[in-house]
Amino acid sequence: MIDSLSSFRTTFSYHRDQTVWEVREEGASAAAARVRRPGPPEAKVPCEVYAGPRLDQFVGLVTAKDAAGPDRTLVGRVHSDAHPNPFKDRVRVEQFGLAVLEGKASGLGSLLRNSVGRFNFDSAMGDLVAPLTLRFSGPEGAAFELTRHAGPLSRFDVKVSDPRVSRLLVLSVVRLFELKTGGLDPRKLGARMGGLFGRG
Predict the structure, then answer these.
(1) Residue 105 belongs to what domain range?
(2) What does the DSSP assignment read for 152-177?
């Protein structure tokens, strides 16, 4: 259902008790999928993916580490070897039945983040001034790319060039970098503060 998407944008709305993503195909006015996750922005619970005309058909689960279909069967895993600078992490996408895809950062955002990371500045500042693109490829060539827009708000554009790639796994990569970036997103900060003040 969502595996027909080849070019789409993911936007986020953050609340104290849940985060909601809208996945919208390029040029479309209506969302093609909606992703819901209970809890505050950093809650480590699976994100539920829904699609269909009313966005009420459950199509799978995604986390920053893996993705599963509607029957909870794993589709594949995302491996990230941590680095203090999130865009120097080594990210690999392992989709069962396909070759492993390696992700590489490129563009001005990558250069900026690598530079500020080297001097121990807050690399979240890189979110504000430069976009960053991550390109994933395997032995057979390009697979997909993910771009985070410059600015405080978390927004990602995705282009899929290999139709065999699971869009659920692509959304897992989005989740991974949504966690690693956007530290200055005022909506995230507001949701966190709301959670603190909302505790009895």
Answers:
(1) 2-197
(2) SS-EEEEEE--TTS-HHHHHHHHHHH
CATH number at residue 161: 3.20.90
- Sign of the torsion formed by the C-alpha atoms of 148, 73, 19 and 53: positive
Q: What is the DSSP annotation of 23-67?
A: EEETT-SS-SEEEEEESSTT--SPEEEEETTTT-EEEEEE-SSEE
| Nearest C-alpha neighbor of 192 from the set 45, 11, 15, 47 | 15
- Alpha-carbon distance of 75 to 139, in angstroms, equals 20
- SS3 call for 111: helix
How many structural domains comprise the chain?
A: 1
**The model's pTM:** 0.87
Could you list the mean pLDDT of each consecutive 10-residue stretch along the chain, which spans 200 residues? 94 90 94 93 89 96 97 96 63 96 79 52 65 91 93 92 97 91 78 53
CA 77 to chain centre: 14
| Phi, psi of 186, rounded to the nearest 5 degrees | -60, -25
| pLDDT tens-digit readout, 26-63 | 989 899 999 999 888 777 899 999 999 999 999 999 99
